[in-house]
Amino acid sequence: MDDSLKLTCLYGKHVALEAKMSPFAGFMMPIQYAGITEEHLAVRNRVGMFDVSHMGEVFISGPDAETFVNHIFTNDVRGLAPGKILYGMMLYPTGGVVDDLLVYRCFEADTYLLVINASNIDKDHAWMLDNAAGYDVVIDNASDKWGQIAVQGPESEKTLVEVLGIAGAAPLGFYEFFDGEWKGGRMIVSRTGYTGEDGFEIYASPESICEIWDILLQAGVAPCGLGCRDTLRFEAGLPLYGDELSADITPVEAGLSMFCKLDKDEFIGKDALVRQKAEGTAKKLVGIEIHDKAIPRAGYPVELEDGTEVGVVTTGYHSISLDRSICFALVKSEYSKLGTPLWIRIRKKVFPGEVVKKRFYQTNYKK
After folding, report:
1. Are 314 and 300 in contact (CB under 8 A)?
2. Nearest CA to 185 among 163, 159, 203?
3. Which of 74, 131, 273, 352 is deepest in the core (most CB within 10 A)?
4. Measured between alpha carbons, how far is 249 from 246 in angstroms, rounded to an integer?
5. How far apart, in whole angstroms, are the C-alpha atoms of residue 50 and residue 149?
6. Helix 36-45 vs helix 226-235: angle between axes, to the nearest 10 degrees?
7. CA–CA separation, 181 vs 16, rounded Å?
8. Across all residues in the chain, what is the average pLDDT?
9. pTM of the model
10. Residue 169 φ/ψ, nearest 5 degrees
């Protein structure tokens, strides 16, 4: 194994379960256990759990915490109540995305938790520090101090309450969290998810996370790898940084303008988004359904019937839940209207399809 790769606190558990392991975002992570299809369906129909301890946790506190977070974050945290969570992005001045993330308004005064993508932890932390001049804040990258398990699926609430005894999980609404304890140590439990199903995240010390994993495994909760995490989030129309969002793909192009509050006085990248909204964009992220069993993959060209290339696939699968070949693609804006016929070049053949809504699967969040 590459010595430069990091290991999560649950690495030994994955090896003991004979998970298929692979490098991801600088970590050695489980891709699958029983198999991607079986794990995908466990989450859709029952409950599954994911090791997401590779994600980053940065706490921002101090008198200027609200103002600073609003400066680097596209959504609006002004007046956000403790226990609430917002999704949004950090942007470059060009409008390109530094990262997409969740912001938790903590119960401590003037404190926020930013949950960031594993591949971007160092970059994001540096970005925050570089933009903190003039703000009275403390920026604490606590990523190494926390482990995290995501428990996802229609039986996730029952699992947390009955198996783990976390009674406070049941009253949580979507995008809410509470501070609790696990055997005397701090535990944060939130209700967001990245699968399209109801679900929770449990944050605790690495030691506590290992104990919680064992309890869930003993209770029959299916361990799930990053393979089905990707198929699940994709069906639910959720973006992945590096595929549907990047330094070269803005939230406007990705269809995520709703998470960019342009009525705020300012945030980094706002001016670029305002221009894009006013002028239109050259490209737009769309969903495409293929009229064939052929599977579109990231990087495959999107074409018109005459062979003119008008875009590229960012993510594609034969959907496990829907039994259809579908993909996200970044295409020229003039070809982004629903129902527009487009062709995907898969190796030496082209396959017809049409533009459809990006949320392929009917999500089942608790509202």
Report:
1. no
2. 203
3. 74
4. 5
5. 6
6. 50
7. 28
8. 97
9. 0.97
10. -70, -40
What confidence score (pLDDT) does residue 103 get?
98
Joined tokens for residue 179: 């501070």
Query: Which DSSP helix (H) or strand (E) runs through 59?
Result: strand 56-61
Note the pLDDT tens digit of each residue in 340-353. Answer: 999 999 999 999 99
Place of tokens 């293929």: 290
Strand 301-303 and strand 199-204: the pairing is: unpaired
Interval 18-63: pLDDT, tens:
999 999 999 999 999 999 999 999 999 999 999 999 999 999 999 9
Cα 271 to the chain's mean position, in Å? 25
CB burial string 214-248: b at 16+ within 10 A, e below:
eebeeeebbbbbbbbbbbbbbbbbbbbbbbbbbee
What secondary structure letter does DSSP report for 241? Answer: B
What are the residues facing 309 on neighbouring strands?
A: 303
* Residue 9 to residues 119, 139, 211, Cα–Cα distance (Å): 17, 24, 11
Q: Which of 255, 171, 286, 223 is nearest to 31 (CA)?
A: 223
Give the C-alpha separation, 342 to 346, whole Å.
13
d(CA 194, CA 152): 8
1 pLDDT band (50/70/90 cuts)? low
**pLDDT at residue 360 tops 90:** yes
Query: Which pLDDT score is estimated for 367?
Result: 77
The whole-angstrom separation of Cα 119 and Cα 245 is: 13
Q: Is the pLDDT of residue 85 over 80?
A: yes
* Total Cβ atoms within 10 A of residue 69: 26
Pairing, β 48-51 against β 147-152 = antiparallel
Q: Which residues contact 307 (CB under 8 A, 6 or more apart)?
A: 350
Q: Is the pLDDT of residue 290 over 80?
A: yes
Distance CA 46, CA 37 (A): 14
Question: 151-184 burial string, b = 16+ CB within 10 Å, else e?
Answer: bbbbbbbebbeebbebeebeebeebbbbbbebee
d(CA 197, CA 350): 34
